[in-house]
Amino acid sequence: MTMDLPRHDSIASAFAKLDRLLDRYVDQDHRSIDFPGCTAFQWNGESKSIRPITRPVRIGPDDLLGIDSQKRQVMDNTSRFLGGRQANNVLLWGERGTGKSSLVKSLLTAFASTKLRLVQVLKHDMLTIQELYGPIAENGEFRFILFIDDLSFEEDQTDYKELKTIMDGGLEQIPDNLLFYATSNRKHLIPTKFSDNDEDDIRPGDTVEEKVSLADRFGLRLGFYHIAQDAYLDIVDLYARKAGISLAQEDLHREAVRWALQSGSRNGRTAEQFVRSLDRG
Questions:
Q1: H/E stretch holding 21
Q2: Pairing of strands 49-52, 143-148
Q3: How do the pLDDT tens digits run along the chain, 281 residues long?
Q4: Are 103 and 64 in contact (CB under 8 A)?
Q5: 146 partner at 20 to 30 Å CA-CA among 49, 173, 226, 252?
Q6: Nearest-CA neighbor of 145 among 229, 217, 82, 70?
Q7: 223, 256, 251: which is closest to 239 by C-alpha?
């Protein structure tokens, strides 16, 4: 009498199914996520996991100079969101180094004692965002902002079409305790050009409308621009004081202007880099 042994590929298939079932169980058990103890997290779309950030960046809103209007609107929108009132998704767009990302990060300091939870989503994980809706909805006592830094798409990328559906929720209800905050160097997130209005199209405006429609998902869209020299020097003074730089203000400003000219930009990042260059230990 012979006994048929299970084939190797059948055993492998059974273990693969078991692994998937275990992954689903682990993914659905969100009780172990330390939302009460941490304020900042990072989403991993591949492993479908939320990693707490134990050493979050600490930026005070008062340290962000030259963007008073943008700062006021973002703080007001976030405050209304935390208060359970209607609030908008936020897109901060404009020149590099002008404080867009720093402003979002400063929310952790400005609202440190609240129920705000900031979850960073990297660009390559954007299309898995819907996997977050479950744990966010299950933790309704907290208010979540999904932070996408440097959001933009190239001409040949079509992922933005899927992201529009994800932000709208599709057939799935977007959790009431969720907002999207994103930064970008592009106003419309996707490059637009004159050829988008090709006269060969029956409706040439549709091409442009399709490209700018993602930005429309952000109800609050704020532009950031190069700052005036006086504002730039104010930022230099602030960073120099914090770094304990002992240099006459006249000399400090003269060198700061020279540094900005060499860098080809005049913004908060340039000011910070200049002050760092003065710290020679």
A1: helix 8-28
A2: unpaired
A3: 555 555 556 666 655 555 554 444 444 455 568 899 999 999 999 999 999 999 999 999 999 999 999 999 999 999 999 999 999 999 999 988 899 999 999 999 999 999 999 999 998 898 899 999 999 999 999 999 999 998 876 665 566 667 777 777 677 889 999 999 999 987 766 655 544 455 555 545 444 555 567 778 889 999 998 889 999 999 999 999 999 998 999 999 999 999 999 998 899 999 999 999 997 65
A4: yes
A5: 226
A6: 82
A7: 256
Is residue 88 within 8 A of residue 215, CB to CB? The reply is no
> Which residue shows structure tokens 């969101």?
81
Coil/strand/helix, residue 262? helix
3-state secondary structure of 220: strand
* Token couple for 54: 């134990």
- State the burial class of residue 27 (Cβ atoms within 10 Å of its Cβ: 0-12, 13-18, 19+): middle
C-alpha dist (Å) from residue 89 to 77, 182, 204: 9, 8, 29
The Cα–Cα gap between 175 and 134 comes to: 8
Q: For domain 40-224, is the CATH number 3.20.20.140? A: no
Distance CA 133, CA 60 (A): 29
Q: Domain residue spans in the chain? A: 40-224, 229-278
- Answer whether 117's CB lies under 8 Å from 35's CB: yes
Residue 281: both structure tokens together: 């230990």
Nearest CA to 117 out of 24, 208, 181 is that of 181
Sign of CA dihedral 70, 73, 79, 83: negative
DSSP H/E element including 91: strand 90-94
Instruction: Specify which residues 58 forms β-bridges with.
Output: none
